[in-house]
Amino acid sequence: MTSEELMRRARALFPGGVSSPVRAYGAVGGEPRVVERGNGAYVWDVDGRRLLDYVGSWGPMILGHAHPAVLRAIDQAAALGTSFGAPTPGEVALGEEIVAAMPSIERLRFVSSGTEAAMSALRVARAFTGRERIVKMAGGYHGHADSLLVRAGSGAAGLPASAGVTTGAARDTLVAEYNDLESAWAFLRHEDVAALIVEPVAANVGVVPPAAGYLDGLRELTARHGTLLIFDEVITGFRVARGGAQERYGVTPDLTVLGKVIGGGLPVGAYGGRADIMALVAPEGPVYQAGTLSGNPLAMAAGLATLRELTADVYAQLEDYGARLEAGLSTAADAAGASVRISRVGSLLTVFFEEPAAFARFFHAMLDAGVMLPPSQQEAWFVSVAHGDAELQATLTAARAAFAAVAKEPVHA
Ligand code: KE4
């Protein structure tokens, strides 16, 4: 069955033929490749084409695909059964690993996606403060819960809110500008904001690092006004440092939202933070939140196996590859006369083009050369531990030709 035939069947079954909108090629045109398998830094589509992968399942695959330790852990867990709806040793082990890496998380709760984690963190913040309003950033993406789909990023970028989100659901969501403390203070000074939720490194409008002092400023402003500071570290957690952005930038939030890497490619999210806040979560407190597959043993095993591989050497390697990739892409773009801006934090990187058409042309030139990038300017490239010298050279060789292709053809064409 070819990719094309499978996509035809998929389109008959699913909206856009995909299980998540960002996987469709809406921003770049053409048909997504149907991926059959992955190994290390590569995936293979059903037509047998090998692709050097910088999507990495949108973040979880920091070790690369089909890492032996992760597969072994999943196999061993699966042999014991797949889900019990009861406490298990795996959730205790993964919970302790997360708490050890992120001291701001004194207690936590596992869920099955970043969306669930973000919406639950907001719920407990509202209960703890007795306030109803929240502040998010324009372009901030925190999953698809109604109150967070207001001027969101990622695949929702450009929409004031999603269709189907009621004015009631969106009414208590205030939108500030990332890297602009004044815009946050304009809301916080009214003293009725329960929580400010922020991606400490914006990565759903492409990668945008925090300006110097910005995160410290949010910490000081929220504390002064009795507002809880929530770091959405679904992308940055265990990615930009073992302790996430809160370690990298030395700013401690009241609550943290996690996902992606902590599940090693299986469905996991988590929210946690100060013990006095988390004490409000059922069954200890009045904030209800539940989930049939929360703490799923296979997902816990995959997550734990992943985190146990993430040593200081691994982060140094990811940083080094990211720096060489950024430098190589910058040199390649300059040589081709392509005007781009490259933004990077650790192993997260985005190449910003001035025109969407130029981005689309670059994307397809790279794909044709066997390098699969996220199909949207709003997303980050995700580097894995499996990306080595050969992958860097292949990427830069493809980029030199792709930048030239973009520079050669007038973008209005
Ligand atoms: P999930 O519900 O998709 O597990 O997590 C939502 C989420 C929360 N917070 C941040 C900062 C996120 O980036 C995400 C999800 N990211 C998108 C892409 N940027 C996942 C890809 C998709 O939507 O399919």
In CATH, the topology of the largest domain is named Aspartate Aminotransferase, domain 2
Which percent bin holds the helix content?
A: 25-40%
**Assembly state of the chains shown:** single chain
Beta-strand portion reads: 15-25%
Mean pLDDT: 96
Distance between the termini: 34 Å
Describe the protein's architecture and organization.
The chain has 413 residues and is an alpha/beta fold. It folds into two domains: 3-62 and 311-408, Aspartate Aminotransferase, domain 1 (Alpha-Beta Complex), CATH 3.90.1150; 68-309, 3-Layer(aba) Sandwich (Aspartate Aminotransferase, domain 2). Helices cover 38% and strands 15% of the residues. The protein is built from 13 helices and 14 strands. The strands form three sheets. It has a seven-stranded mixed beta sheet, sandwiched between helices. Strands 1-2-3-13 form a four-stranded mixed beta sheet. Strands 11-12-14 form a three-stranded antiparallel beta sheet. Helix 6 packs parallel to helix 7, helix 11 runs parallel beside helix 13 and helix 12 packs across helix 13. It is globular. Ligand KE4 binds at residues 20, 22, 58, 113-115, 118, 141-143, 154-155, 199, 204, 232, 234-235, 259, 269, 379.
